[in-house]
Design brief:
By secondary structure, the chain is of the alpha/beta class. It is built from 15 helices and 14 strands.
Length: 433
């Protein structure tokens, strides 16, 4: 019997034993709230995974269940058997909560310490066999000296498409594109493709089904699935990675200059103009001083980060971390008596945003944490005012969006980097030293 649309297979990684044949992914607030409510039973082999999640309750359910808490490394950290209705269970450190039929954990031998793996269901209802790793597929394709490696990008995200196409073309790949992920199956044969990259941000199930079809019809083709941070990233035989976290071999070449070059031409001009104006403004405001020099570095960095974050929801380490180190070193060199202030302010600002990141990972990114540390290193104790200004500006914009678009806008994501930049620049120019 075919599984539910979007259902995945859960298996134990060490021995390949299937733990759940038909596991539905509940990856939105509404799906997690609904869970198994309204169902009269949960058949053996069926299940649901709540992601992200570290606690559950069985209020108003009509049957007991087995529960497995899984961490970010896909390792089972806790198993609760026969959890009856109107009970609750919590496991700090878990990222996924897998709900199975009562008795399934014991029958399948599921226990704490087991490492799990996800697999998309094949077109015939059976689990997919493990795909060859992408690097091997690339090596095989590269073995042919007669033509470049041909890569298909299947995505509706214009920003991601522009960046990926730039990086691949620059490294000698021949790139084809499609906005319809399902069309990738036909294009593989017609375009003689070697590697397919599928964007699962809109639909994980569609990407998984397409990957399954490619595996069945064209086993020699490498397949890579990418998705946004908040989307589930099950550890299947297919490589699955964050959309904005390039592979190591590409990421090592992704410099600050590359991030700038991938911006649209008009944005590059705006960034250059704003950087010159703000840098000049620092020297006009503070004179030829160390404070003006550090402020100019901060201003230029914040302008560039704002443009990148607005364009593709990314605050790249290649820009943030070198700027943070440079600012901190210069501050300590110019003002050694305030060394403790710079260090504590950077750590405190980062911690202020790191705590919400732990509580609700989808609401805050590590990039925001690092930018906050940069502000702390540059502004010292005045960073508190910068954070307050950024939060106030973000709240105003959020209320405006809600008023204009209604409650449907609650699920809309807003880049927070520009608000941090606003707060930092406001305090930099108005706060003085």
């Amino acid at each position: 019997m075919a599984g539910s649309p979007g259902a995945l297979v859960l298996r134990r990684e060490d021995d390949g034993q299937v733990v759940c044949e038909r596991c539905v992914v509940a990856d939105t607030t509404l799906r997690r709230l609904r869970g198994l409510l309204g169902r009269r039973e949960l058949n053996p082999g069926d299940g649901i995974v709540l992601r992200p999640g570290w606690s559950i309750h069985t209020a108003f359910m009509l049957f007991p269940i087995d529960v497995a808490f899984v961490d970010a490394d896909q390792v089972v950290v806790k198993v609760v058997q026969n959890l009856k209705p109107f009970r609750a269970s919590v496991c700090r450190g878990a990222r996924d909560v897998v709900e199975l039929a009562a008795g399934e954990a014991e029958r399948r031998g599921l226990k704490a310490g087991d490492r799990l793996a996800w697999a998309a269901r094949g077109v015939n209802g059976r689990p997919l066999t493990a795909s060859r790793p992408l690097p091997l597929a690339l090596e095989t394709a590269a073995a042919s000296p007669t033509r470049p490696i041909r890569v298909l990008l299947g995505t509706r995200d214009e920003q991601f498409l522009r960046l990926a196409e730039f990086l691949l073309t620059r490294n000698g790949f021949a790139v084809e594109t499609t906005k319809k992920v399902a069309n990738a199956v036909d294009l593989v044969w017609r375009q003689r493709l070697d590697v397919v990259v599928l964007d699962a941000s809109d639909s994980l199930s569609e990407a998984a089904r397409t990957a399954a079809a490619i595996e069945a019809l064209h086993p020699q083709v490498g397949v890579l699935i990418v998705c946004d941070d908040e989307r589930p990233k099950p550890a299947t035989g297919l490589p699955i990675m964050e959309k904005w976290a390039p592979p190591a071999e590409v990421h090592s070449r992704l410099s600050a200059l590359a991030h700038i070059r991938t911006l649209p031409r008009r944005q590059q001009i705006v960034v250059a103009g704003a950087s010159v104006v703000l840098a000049a403004g620092c020297f006009a405001r503070f004179g030829l001083s160390a404070h003006a020099f550090v402020g100019a570095i901060l201003a230029v960095t914040l302008v560039l980060l704002t443009a990148i974050d607005l364009d593709r929801r990314l605050l790249p380490d290649a820009i943030v971390l070198p700027s943070l180190v440079a600012v901190l070193i210069l501050q300590i060199a110019f003002y050694p008596d305030h060394t403790l202030e710079w260090v504590i302010a950077a750590l405190a600002a980062a911690l202020f945003f790191f705590v919400p990141l732990l509580v609700y990972p989808a609401g805050m990114g590590m990039g925001d944490v690092k930018v906050a540390a940069l502000l702390g290193a540059a502004l010292g104790k005045s960073v508190a005012a910068a954070i307050l200004a950024s939060l106030f500006a973000a709240a105003v914009v959020a209320l405006f969006v809600l008023a204009r678009e209604g409650l449907s806008a609650r699920k809309r994501t807003i880049a927070f980097g520009p608000f941090l930049a606003f707060g930092g620049l406001l305090v930099l120019f108005l706060g003085g030293r």
